[in-house]
Amino acid sequence: MAGQGGSSAGGRGVVISDNWPGYSLDLFTYPQHYYGDLEYVLIPHGIIVDRTERLAKDIMQDIGDNDIVVLCVLKGGYKFCADLVEHIKNLSRNSERFISMKVDFVRLKSYHNDQSMQDMQIIGGDDLSKLTGKNVLIVEPQGCSQSGWESQSFPQAPNSCIQLSTQQCPWGTAHHRAVADDIVGTGRTMKVLLNNIEKYKPKMIKVASLLVKRTSRPDGYRPDYYGFEIPDLFVVGYALDYNEHFRDLNHICVINDHGKTKYRV
Ligand code: HPA
Ligand code: MG
After folding, report:
1. How far is the CA of 234 from the centre of ligand 1 (A)?
2. For 253, which DSSP code?
């Protein structure tokens, strides 16, 4: 994105710098029910889609000789996944390589109990054993970030915080509650998913993330492909939510205080 502190292909994705002021909301259209709730547009929808097309090309170049099982991480990953799959299909149609793709969905839930133990569960999706011998592409809205989400001024904190333990999650008991599942908040979260999948011996696993937040990364995890490196901001739109709102917004935006208050639970 020109004029906003640098962009680069490949390596770090499109880098959106900390001092990028965003685009004025007046320059775009967005649902009327969000008027007054947003601060600015961080990434317009068109740029997301164009960048996703390039990721599709990179993915095709790397693994396009093989059939792919796409594992979409819900809910926040659904738009990115839909666009990515569409682009891969188009590229494959227009090339010599015709790859077959299967798409499946998983949801990661983290539960937090009174003792501050947190656990993650993978729910939904086919039996993971179907991934044996397959080329698996995990598609998630956001890659690695810092594990200490509480330290940031997230409107949802500590709900946005996922910290993992390997303990069994006593699913659904009264003092367990769901916490963030949209943005896979930590590299550790993704590592748990990867470890689970690896048990079934897929031929290959790659991870594609739309966003990577610029925070310290204690576990050094980075997705194989990602669209944008963004400042440490709470973002909504393009399937990313604030308390289940804003998923229907096309652009990736930053909410304002009015929006945070209006949709606070
Ligand atoms: N947006 C939406 N959900 C989230 C975010 C975010 O920036 N961070 C953690 N959960
Ligand atoms: Mg969410």
Report:
1. 5
2. E
Query: By the 8 A CB rule, do 169 and 119 touch?
Result: yes
pLDDT digits (tens, 9 = 90+) for 124-179: 766 888 899 999 999 999 875 443 332 233 333 232 222 222 222 222 222 223 33
pTM of the model: 0.80
Output the CA 91–ligand 2 centroid distance in Å: 31
Measuring CA to CA, how many Å separate 48 from each of 32, 206, 226?
21, 20, 11
pLDDT band at 118 (very low <50, low <70, confident <90, very high): low
Backbone φ, ψ for residue 78 (5° rounding): -70, -35
Q: Where are the beta strands (DSSP E) in 75-180?
A: 101-112, 118-123, 135-142, 177-179
- Angle formed at CA 139 by CA 126 and CA 71, multiple of 5 degrees: 10
Residue 253 pLDDT class (50, 70, 90 cuts): very high
Ligand 2: centre distance to CA 210 (Å): 15
Whether the CB-CB separation of 208 and 223 falls below 8 Å is answered with yes
Ligand nearest to the CA of 244: 2
Joined together, the tokens standing for residue 27 give 């320059």
Which ligand ends up closest to the CA of 249? 1
Closest residue by Cα to atom 7, ligand 1, is: 234
Spatial contact of 135 and 63, defined as CB atoms under 8 Å apart: yes
96 Cα–ligand 2 center, Å = 39
Pairing of strands 14-15, 235-236: unpaired
CA of 181, nearest ligand number: 2
Q: Are 42 and 48 in contact (CB under 8 A)?
A: no
